[in-house]
Specification:
Blueprint lengths: L10 E6 L1 H7 L8 E2 L2 E2 L1 H19 L2 E10 L2 E11 L2 H10 L1 H6 L3 H11 L2
Antiparallel strand pairs: 1-5, 2-3, 4-5
């Protein structure tokens, strides 16, 4: 997401479809499909929400997401992120230096790489 950022904006945003998000995270088309039905709640809880919570804890940005619907179906996910304030960021970085090294979940790392530029 670092490459998605615009330095002059206070808030950045990116829209991505479920299919593209699953591909970005290295998931197959069949992941989170049970009995022929896509389990969106599980997908969001186990991938998006967990990754964003981890990113918000260890990085210098705050990331949020929401679903955009069209005709009752999810059209895409909207990710927004902002820089944390400088004072908070300095303290945050010192407290979390070791947490970055402990991440080993591939999906979280992919999102973190795209958001934070590491």
């Amino acid at each position: 997401m670092c490459s998605w950022s615009n330095e002059s904006k206070k808030q950045n945003e990116r829209y991505i479809t479920t299919k593209d998000l699953k591909e970005l995270l290295g998931l197959s088309i069949d992941d989170y499909v049970y009995n022929g039905k896509f389990r969106r709640f599980d997908f969001e809880r186990e991938t998006i929400t967990k990754a964003i919570n981890e990113i918000n804890k260890i990085s210098n940005i705050n990331v949020f997401f929401k679903k955009n619907k069209e005709n009752g179906k999810v059209k895409n996910y909207e990710f927004t992120w902002t820089q944390k304030d400088k004072l908070n960021n300095d303290n945050h970085t010192k407290q979390n230096d070791n947490k970055r090294q402990s991440l080993n979940d591939m999906q979280k790392q992919i999102l973190l790489d795209n958001i934070d530029g590491h």
